[in-house]
Amino acid sequence: MDGRRRAFISASIIWLAIAVGGCSGHGSAPLTPGTQSQPMGGAVQVKRTSGFPAHAPMTINAAARAMDARRPHSSSPGSRRPAPIRHDVALPAGWMSAKTSHLRPQFIAGSPAWSQLPGSVVQVVVSPSDGSLWALAAVGPGPDYPIAHYAGGSWTTVPGDAARLAISPYGDTLWAVNAEGGIYAYTVATQTWNGIGGSASDITVAADGSVYVLSNSDADAGGNFPIWHYANGAWSSVPGSGYRISASWDPNSYPITGATMDPGGFFVFTADTGSDPDGNGNLYFYSPGVGFESVPGQVQAMAPVTGGLFAVSGAAGAGNESAIYFYEYASQGWTEEPGDAVSVAASQTALYSVTSADALWTTPLTLKNPTITEYPVPTANSEPYGIAAGPDGALWFTEGDANKIGRITTGGTITEYPVTTANSAPVGIAAGPDGALWFTEATTNKIGRITTGGTITEYPVPTSNSAPVGIAAGPDGALWFAEGNGNKIGRITTDGTITEYPIPTANSSPEGIAAGPDGALWFAEFTGSKIGRVTTGGTITEYPLPTTGNGPNGIAAGPDGALWFTELGGKIGRVTVGGTITEYSVQAASGPYFIAAGPDGALWFTAVNNDGIGRITIGDTFTEYQLPTASSQPYGIAAGSDGALWFTENSQNKIGRISLK
Question: Is the pTM of this model over 0.70?
């Protein structure tokens, strides 16, 4: 490893393919678009929606018009007082500790990976922060049921009854709708309820924390309810209606029936039982700012994950369960999964099934074996370092020894652009808010900007010999960077104006930097053994690590609302926005270097000493994938627009790609 300062690349990771592992299923063939299968083994294949001809997929505008045409007139949920959230239904002692005895034998036969959890439930949602479950306990006649929380192998009750539940992306807020339409937010940390509005029949939480609901009034003739959006304290109407709604937290874009499935959207299916006697409704995806697009298939229940959608569909079997299917976004195809269900829930690591007997079952989800491809950099001994996704769909990387900025398409074509100043040693790189890439020049003490056309501009850092390293886009429209030798955090506007903020700890050697979910920038102090936080106004706070001398280096915002960082000494750290730090040991010799949050709910990092790519879940499960080339020393890591993970191999002069599709 050379002595050059380490740089951190802040980027989100790619789509991760998932499949149910170790189970046997019904064994039917994947759905062919435009086809409709017959029952087989007690289940039917997902059906092509009768309203969407196979020969002419509906366009985005046409789909939006179709949804808008069916939208009934509706009043805002905010205009109605929420019906009080009550706790009228008592949860009998031991009710959630016992397992439901009335099971459908066909459900578990030949499926050893399915295991039953204690409790009797009618709905379950999975917290993305810790994998715990929130459920409606199957007690009483309904339609409101007691709320319970499953964590650490046991259930606890939550004061309140509800008809539908949803969880926020960070797991910090549980949302509930009661039978009278009251909409409530339950803050997990304080265990308090807050009424938001009335008039809802279903609810989901989008990737940005805003809420979508289906009204409980003004339904159309088919039983579909208007869609409303709650964000920043205000309600707005969304064209369209549906019977059930579920948000996608996938940060990637995918093609879908000739259009695009964009981040931040949601799925909705309709109550078009007239076109399907089995009760399967037409399925749509809504992209914010674009509209609706039809998804081939009809469903009864759904659970989106990164890279795909689990759904229940088909004719109900003897136990009133239907088959479980998985729709892979990248391939736009359905496959049947083992087991049946009435409803499903999923995280990136587990699938949950609720049966007609209110039994709760789970099976692990496993990543597909990765495919690793390597692309040699044209310039010999270039020492590629940082890497980031560009706005043009390509990956951009720095070449420390070659003094160039490289660009690689997702097809593997590399173009190189010489940096204007000789021997600048570019290291960190990040996409800026202005559509350009910004990079640090460690030895010539500058911040560089390169357009996607290859035009480079440089801006000198005021402090001499500051050795700028890590760089990241801030929430204020500026770029923020760490000065390894200058012991400062710098800020540069897109017009080149630089401001510097001294770090309180002397000689701390700041390295990686990333924007946090709290609107501040967080950075790792390599020799200071601290994690720092700087507000956009320049106020710095530092948090000492439990383990000193371990070399904190890369840092990234995680899916749980915390910041995750690497420690070169063999640990992965986690710091909450309140400053609480936890450390997790990985392989001692792995040398965790750069880190990024994956859309699978895990954190991914380069293992510079082991020549591998590591993965750690928020529950501390560690996996490492070995690279084909020995002594490669992977450094930077970033997500590509192709749904793959891209990284630099510093010692072997290559750009690597790892795909789990």
Answer: no
